[in-house]
């Protein structure tokens, strides 16, 4: 059932419609399908596109968290990644690493505060609290092992903190997308529609109406569009989540970030061993002259990526902060995104000054979009019957809302198998709750100027 011609114009009925086919949507679909649900996944672009958050070749999998609950979740996710790999192996006969456990080093200045990657010292405490492996490493050891140099120019020796954990690694993004789709597609009559955009979501008017009814258009459906109905809906649209939520009178408070990544060529002759044997993250305080972040991180080369190439990230690299409206305007004008000369220049400077055996000129770069909440967390949950700014008396009339599950934002690639499972549970088990609570869609801000304000609000 994949060609436009084979589909009829009358509404197609499913147990659950998943809007958005990135890492999280495909994982939700896989979990629903393997539990006997008839799933429709609707993707506006083609599957495996580079236009959302799940582009590029790799993502960091870390167990080192400032929040202890996220460390627990990461360890659970690690087991689920291995289960997923095994299921994929049984289905295809191929042994493919979806999560490559390389380990990771965190190091830097004990005075470093906190930012998108959390802080430096707390994750080490948390690993010890959870009786997980953690080994302290000196500046000298880090420089030798990771082919770095002159770290003393960035991190005063007496303020050095460095440690490694072996349970971190690198996610094989392209193969994970393919594995999830393959394991769900066709199961229990599931349907995967690409080049199909959900442009309208109807709310039920009377009791006999289906809880979920969406209209879809695009080259992947017959001319004039297609309607689909279901009992449940899972919204995993990344930065476009508010485009869907507006149909339900709601919006989430996030920014759209355009984020640059860069790959650099390594020299196999000057560094015969692996350039970066593990992931590493440097938590050094800002550059005194420019005020720019000195948080850099490196990814090892991976067998599914180009040879002799490492990815190096810089926290301050173009994080253009846009509203969804501005992003759409830009797209409508046919304008894409590229790394700026500042991004390239600053990353190159780091490579020149601190890396051994890497060409400072980036080999290639790209841009991914990120839905950013100001506490850097994801939101995950069933839509509540009332949202912030609404009269609770209307709760009954909005009972259909809890047929919708939403997941957006945060550094969530590593939680792909866990969040997929949680979305299935939230959709089909009324008693299921989001654990840990700090991800809940109904949460309010815990700190900062806007403390107490909700992320999910009634649309003005
Ligand atoms: C540069 C960058 C680096 C990152 N690094 C890490 C990392 O190291 N570790 C980590 O764990 N996480 C990381 N993340 C976060 C992680 O990549 C995301 O959390 C994850 O990819 C989100 O997947 P998604 O499925 O929610 O969204 P997406 O991949 O954006 O998928 C959403 C899909 O919805 C589709 N869509 C939108 N609107 C509609 C519509 N109306 N109808 C149909 N389809 C629609 C879009 O086309 C898109 O394909 C990073 C993110 C970025 C951008």
Structure commentary:
The protein has 460 residues and is an alpha+beta fold. It folds into two domains: 1-62 and 172-251 and 374-460, FAD/NAD(P)-binding domain, CATH 3.50.50.60; 88-167 and 255-372, D-Amino Acid Oxidase, Chain A, domain 2. It contains nine helices and 22 strands. The chain has helices at 23-34, 68-92, 122-129, 139-146, 173-184, 241-245, 324-332, 341-354, 416-428, and strands spanning 12-19, 39-42, 58-61, 99-100, 104-109, 135-136, 160-165, 169-172, 191-193, 197-202, 212-217, 226-235, 250-252, 255-265, 279-284, 294-299, 309-314, 319-322, 364-372, 379-382, 404-408, 456-458. Strands 5, 6, 7, 14, 15, 16, 17, 18 and 19 form a nine-stranded mixed beta sheet that branches. Helix 1 packs parallel to helix 5 (173-184) and helix 1 packs across helix 9. The longest helix is centred in the N-terminal third of the chain and has 25 residues, at 68-92. The structure holds flavin-adenine dinucleotide. Residues 19-25, 42-45, 49, 51-54, 59-60, 197-198, 236-238, 240, 243-244, 259, 261, 368-370, 410-414 line the site of flavin-adenine dinucleotide.
In short:
With 460 residues, the protein is α+β, with helices and mostly antiparallel strands.
